[in-house]
Amino acid sequence: MSNNYIKTIDNDYYRQRLSNLLIIIFLAFAILVTRLFYLQIIEGDNYYTKSENNCIRLQRIPPERGLIYDRQGVLLVDNRPSFDIEIVPKDARPYKAVLPDLSKYLNISKKELISKLKKARGSAVYRPIILKRDVSRDVLAKIEVNRYDLPGVQVRVTPRRHYVHRTAVHLIGYLSEINSSELKKKGLKDYRQGDYIGKYGIEKTLEKYLRGKQGGRQVEVDVNGRILKVNVTKKSTPGHNVYLTIDADLQKKAELLLEGKNGAIAAMDPNTGMILAFVSKPDYDPNIFVDGMTHDQWNKLVNDYQKPLHNKVLQGEYPPGSVYKIVTTIAGLEEKLITLNEKIQCFGSYRLGNRSYRCWKKYGHGWMNIEDAIAQSCDVFFYQLGLQLGVDRLAKYAKACGLGNKTGIALELERPGLIPTSKWKLLQTGEEWQKGETLSIAIGQGFNLVTPIQMLCLIAAVANNGIMYKPQVIKCIQTVGGQHLYDAQPKAMGILPASKKTLRILKKGLWEVVNKVRGTAYWHARDKSIEISGKTGTAQVISLKKQEEKEYEDKTRYEDHAWFVAYAPSVESKIAVAVLVEHGGHGSSAAAPIAKEIIKAYLGREK
Amino acid sequence: MFDRRLIQCFDWGLLLLTLLLLGVGLIALCSAVFSAKLDMTAANTTLIMKQLIAIGIGMLFMIFLLFIDYRNLDRWAYFIYFVTVLMLIWVLYYGHFVAGSRRWLVFGMLRFQPSEIAKLSVIIILSHYYSRTITDQGLSFKDLLIPLILTVLPCMFILKQPDLGTAGLIFLNASAMTWFVKVKKRTLIAIATILVICLPLGWFMLKDYQQARIKSFLDPNRDPLGSGYHVIQSKIAIGSGRMLGKGFLQGTQNDLAFLPEQHTDFIFSVLAEEWGFVGSMTVIILYFLLIMWTLYVANVSRDIFGKLLAVGICAMIFWQMSINIGMVMGLMPVVGVTLPFISYGGSSIVTTLIGIGILLNISMRRFMFD
Questions:
Q1: φ, ψ of residue B289 in degrees (nearest 5)
Q2: Those residues with Cβ within 8 angstroms of residue B210's Cβ, 6 or more apart along the chain or in another chain
Q3: pLDDT level of residue A9 (50, 70, 90 thresholds)
Q4: A355-358 and A196-200 strand pairing
Q5: pLDDT at position B213, please?
Q6: A62 & A199 share domain
Q7: A20, A23, A33, A39: which to substitute to probe chain B, counting the most B Cβ within 10 Å?
Q8: CA closest to A56 among chain B residues
Q9: How many CB atoms are closer than 10 A to CB B175?
Q10: Does B307 touch chain A (CB under 8 A)?
């Protein structure tokens, strides 16, 4: 042990080293004591008065939220100043005396004011509580005039979200006051009670970019909480501006076309996947979410059977109807179950077992090849093709075409739809798959469910000869200074499971739908100057048989859904459109004219 | 074999000072979490319970250490160091995220910061190394290379967390010990020159955002809504205490709720507001006595390892105390250093008490070499 005890240096040496340390220690203590003496004794009274009413406070300066534009820079969402009336409970002395006056000026009952104050009791007593937002000029004037009788009451100007036009509401979404469960979330540390946060749509998805950074200032206040001096100000940083891919004019046109109806319209540039129009109807006024709504207003919105809050482009799941014949065609041709030269005769119905399956045309289409079958949407033709394919092979192609899966668009609540397989049915119902069900599936009725955005992606991929692009709604994000933070690039998700030859046959058929006299959309969608290709679809809401059996009091609720998907021009397409009109009836009459108008509006303007 | 002299030589004075400071800490913590007007809410009482538990655990460690001859630390120095570094690496991958940095290791109920343990490990390993290399000639440049590596290695991992405050403290502790061991004048001048040349060079090598981070670290006025505001409120709180203070639980600055710092880093301001100059001076004098006492322990210890250990622990307490109090009085940048014994926080309390345990150990075994 003792070998560790170094005797070469004697103890005096260490004593001397230790006294070196002492110098530093003494010096440090001397500084601390001097400072303490200065703060508490010399400046003590000064600091004491400052502490009396906590005169140095922090005030937050909310940032200007980023603006939202269309692809060409047309302003869609703006901010406007709002005058908010706040109270700092600690400054409002005497507390009780202020309330009657305030209640009169603000036109809020005294009870409500007290409950508002009580709610905020847990938080710090110097934090302002918002009593009323966005007051009118008259109220503001009353408050300002009587300022000196209202200690602790302040007016604060904050930027407030303003949805200028009621357009693309389901895409843009809305802001609303942050709720207590969101406040507890870890990522949202920067938020306080009373702040706004994006709750839906782009406002929610891009919250991080749009919000900006809080600023603040350090102020000195008097006993009544009025500002005497601003010590330091840190400016807030405005949020980034977002440019959407939609075209404001086209969007408005599409909204007008669907006005008064229920349904969805989506349009896309088939060469990039950029969404040009995004409509879901009926819609709602997003400003009411910013203003805060009453219980009745909210209940009315939620309980409306037309579901205005529902984003039908992404969340609406419908049977695809005859639009699905695109998938059946691809599968049949790729599996070599049919060729262009083969013809099948349609007598108006097809017999399987002891049941007869009808074609939509009562007396049949006669002999036809696959192109004719697409053009005239012959059910009997596709019954037979579907039967040969079987449900599982068909499902494989449907999935490869992007159905049954979310498209991955940058918005929440997208639904995946449903592509049934025999295994799926066994798991869900415990029953074996019936052959008759395959017939329904082949023409897009039955268990099949798709969303309008999926149909749009499918038709766009056909239009561009097979590349499935991810649908995108954000064109770019820019700082206020114009620096680009994000620029959308086309993203290919995959390719259609179809050879060039298959696509050529399919596209010929789709061209005939609109441009041949016997095509299902000839009378509704043909345009002399623009060549449009497309496919109609009519999705049954209930089976035809039942419809005959019963008379329904409200007929429209049981009308079929009308589909039309299209692209134009037929070669080197510039736009793809999917239209769904809920309970619209036939795809040809209800949906096709809308698609035609949209295409004309878009291509007509480009010329 | 248990030596009776161990009990006879037990350092009651050091223990008393420790207990007094812990008591002051508890009183200050009460002031910070309760306001005279508010009821005792459950959340606030748990803070005090947690602190009491931390003190209990620290005491257990302290007592446990008394039974182990501190010279064993000399033997195990490299092992302790190695384990610490492993934990520091571990925490980078599996640590708990709190307020943007990974500092915590969690084992069931137990959670601690390895960076706190690193403070002690570095002191132990440097004592081990210097006790073998010390000469009255002073250390040369070459002798300093290994201690430098031993210090910088854990510091790098701690900076990664990131925890600038603790890394800086470890470096300060190491410097104090090295200064005590004595460095050749020539070497000192060389180091000073290198620093003078390298600092500006290094500054320009940093990226813009790194520069900005360091600037706001050094200058609270750059952050008037964060640490700058805290310092102003802290100064008002301290100053408004005047000579005798506002009295227990009568402080008002607490209402401003610059939580959570008021019961951790800014606890001294709460104390000074309620107990005034008289109270604050008492606390500062207690610290002064404690530091003098540790130097006394260093003086009476007969082996060089013990001396160095005592000096290291002395440095640890001294730096933290003076930086923290300097910081709340607006003399230093706000760096997130706790006030030993008083600040709320388990890791800090336990580490400090382990340090005291080692000191008591050295102190009671001073006769061993007679």
A1: -60, -45
A2: none
A3: low
A4: unpaired
A5: 62
A6: yes
A7: A39
A8: B233
A9: 14
A10: yes
| Judgement on whether residues A410 and A527 belong to the same structural domain of the protein | yes
User: What is the model's pLDDT at position B295?
Assistant: 93
Euclidean distance between CA atoms B258 and A93, whole angstroms: 23
| Interchain CB contact of B232 with A (< 8 Å) | yes
Whether B243 and A33 lie within 8 Å, measured CB to CB: no
How many helices (DSSP H) and strands (DSSP E) are in chain A? Answer: 24, 23
What is the pTM assigned to this prediction? 0.74
- DSSP H or E segment with residue A278: strand A275-281
* pLDDT score for B257: 52
User: Which residues of A are less than 8 Å from B228 in CB distance?
Assistant: 218, 232
Among all residues of chain B, which has the CA nearest to that of A59?
Answer: B225
Mutation target vs A (from B238, B259, B281, B318; most A CBs, 10 A cutoff): B238
User: What does the pLDDT look like over A452-502, one tens digit per residue?
Assistant: 999 999 999 999 999 999 999 999 999 999 899 999 999 999 999 999 999
- Residues of chain B positioned with their CB less than 8 A from the CB of A46: 239
Nearest CA of chain B to the CA of A24: how many Å?
A: 10
**Do A390 and A521 have their domain in common?**
yes
Beta strands A241-244 and A68-69 are parallel
Print the domain residue range for B156.
4-369
Rounded Cα–Cα distance for residues A189 and A198 (Å): 15
Residues A259 and A327 in one domain: yes
Give the active site residues of A: 322
Give the Cβ contact number of residue A363 at 10 Å.
Answer: 10
What local confidence, expressed as pLDDT, does residue B39 receive? 47
Which pair of structure tokens corresponds to residue A303? 């309980």
CATH number where A239 lies: 3.90.1310.10
Of B225, B255, B302, the CB nearest to A5: B302
Q: A12 to chain B: which residues are within 8 Å by CB?
A: none
Is pLDDT above 90 for A37?
yes
Least confident of A31-35, A87-91, A201-205, B68-72: A87-91
Which of B180, B239, B295 is closest, CB to CB, to A47?
B239
How much is the pLDDT for B36?
A: 47
Verify that A135 and A82 share a domain, yes or no.
yes
Work out the minimum CA distance from A22 to partner chain B, whole angstroms: 8
Same domain? For A574 and A471 the reply is: yes
| Regions of chain B where pLDDT drops below 70 | 1-3, 35-44, 98-101, 108-109, 207, 209-210, 212-214, 216-224, 253-262, 368-370
Inform me whether the C-beta atom of residue B369 falls under 8 Å from chain A C-beta atoms: yes
Write phi, then psi, for A63 (nearest 5 degrees): -80, 155
Same domain (yes/no): A40, A135: no
Q: Are B243 and A37 an interchain contact pair (Cβ–Cβ within 8 Å)?
A: no
- The total of structural domains in chain B comes to 1
B179 close contact with A: CB closer than 8 A: yes
Neighbouring residues of A62: CB distance < 8 A, sequence distance ≥ 6? A158, A159, A195, A214, A215, A236
| Host domain of residue A38 | 2-52
**pLDDT at residue A386 above 50?**
yes
Q: Which of A244, A278, A298 is the last residue of a domain?
A: A244
Residue of B225, B276, B369 with shortest CB distance to A216: B225
Sign of the dihedral defined by the CA atoms of residues A102, A107, A109, A115, in that order: negative
| Cβ distance of B134 and A50 shorter than 8 Å | no
Contact A52 B134 (CB under 8 A): no
- With CB atoms and an 8 Å threshold, state whether B255 touches A126: yes
Same domain as A176, residue A110: yes
Number of structural domains in chain A: 3
Amino acid present at A602: Y
- pLDDT confidence tier of residue A544, bands split at 50, 70 and 90: very low
Query: Which residue shows structure tokens 């790729």?
Result: A334
Is-contact B294 B316, C-beta < 8 A? no
Q: Indicate the residue among A210, A244, A278 that finishes a domain.
A: A244
